[in-house]
Amino acid sequence: MIRGFYVGGRSAAEYQKAMDVTANNLSNVNTNGYKSSRLSFRDILYKRVRMPDDYEQNRGRYDRNVATNRSFRGEGSPNPYIQEEYNYFNGEDAIIDEQEYPGASEYFIENKLRIGGGLRVIESAINMSQGSFENTGDMLNALITGDGFFCIEGLDGESYYYTRNGAFRISAEVDGNYIVTAAGEYVMSRDFDRIVIPEEADFPYIAMEGDENADDINALYVGVFMCNNIYGLHLTGGNKFTVTEISGEMESIGRDRTDVKAGYLEMSNVDVAVEMSRVIQFQRAFQANLTLVRTADEIEAYTNQLRQ
Questions:
Q1: H or E stretch including 73?
Q2: Which residues partner with 179 through β-bridges?
């Protein structure tokens, strides 16, 4: 029953990862511009084994191979009579001659025990669908109504990250005022420059280049950027994305693909009802695998008592 420990323990650990991702989604349900994640699973390879005395009781069907006329795959190793090989040489709808090979067709549905190896996480996919809108009335809040991300300069002054969170602020510095995030990071223009607020501006608001009132001194033009594959972006935490080789480099896009609306924010795209149903699903799967581990442990303990 050692296999029961491995299968149950491995699967429980993978479901624990899924619960962690779901919990993170629920905790960010009120985070502006947050994109939910979901894990995908895949079964680990199954091991196909024969039942006790299978070869001894079905030796004729093992040794006969209609497709290739060979008795063994290797020295001393029986060559199973495989339906797929028979179909390959005789057509997809071939029917085995029961008179020439009595009982052969029944053999393919008997003594075919498969032992699973559990499951594993193969992907953490990000849902990039747009969240709902919220009217804040704050003209320093910005909503991207189409494709794209805002570009933010990191605190190190050298790196950049991208986000859909448009809750911006005005910094107060000696050399001027800039548009920044709540953490004090600078928001970039389409040319990757910091956005300076003119001293003459009395009612600044976020805008995108191409607006009709392009000469308005109060308009603060932010850049909107897009890559070839948004699902290749790397989520670094804190609702921040960075480019990878899979995503490709970010490039500024125009009004033909997107727009920026001041006074609004994009909310999280987390569906609470869906996430709660996943919590129940993963919890039950987690408990079932722990039950498997506990049962395997009890059988091992009982077996050890019989040996004494």
A1: strand 72-74
A2: 170
Q: Note the pLDDT tens digit of each residue in 252-274.
A: 998 888 889 999 999 999 999 99
User: Which pairs with CB-CB distance under 8 Å and at least 24 residues apart come from 152-158?
Assistant: 152/181, 152/185, 152/186, 152/187, 152/188, 152/240, 153/185, 153/186, 153/187, 153/188, 153/194, 154/185, 155/183, 155/184, 155/185
Asked whether residue 185 carries a pLDDT value surpassing 90, the answer given is yes
Q: Residue 120 has what pLDDT?
A: 83
Burial of residue 162 (CB within 10 Å: 0-12, 13-18, 19+) is buried
CA distance linking residue 81 with residue 65, whole number of Å: 5
Hey, how many other C-beta atoms are within 10 angstroms of the C-beta on 3? 13
Tell me whether strands 196-197 and 177-180 are parallel, antiparallel or unpaired: antiparallel
User: What amino acid is encoded at 216 in this protein?
Assistant: D
- Check if the beta carbon of residue 64 is closer than 8 Å to that of residue 101: yes
* Phi, psi dihedrals of residue 275, rounded to the nearest 5°: -65, -40
Q: Give CA–CA dist 83/189, Å, rounded.
A: 65
Neighbouring-strand partners of residue 48: 114
Place of tokens 């005789």: 90
Q: What count of residues does the chain have?
A: 308
Domain boundaries, the chain: 1-46+118-127+269-308, 49-115, 133-266
Q: Please name which of 224, 164, 240 lies closest in space to residue 190, comparing C-alpha atoms.
A: 224
User: What mean pLDDT value characterizes the chain?
Assistant: 79
pTM of the predicted structure, to 2 decimals: 0.70
Place of tokens 């994009």: 266
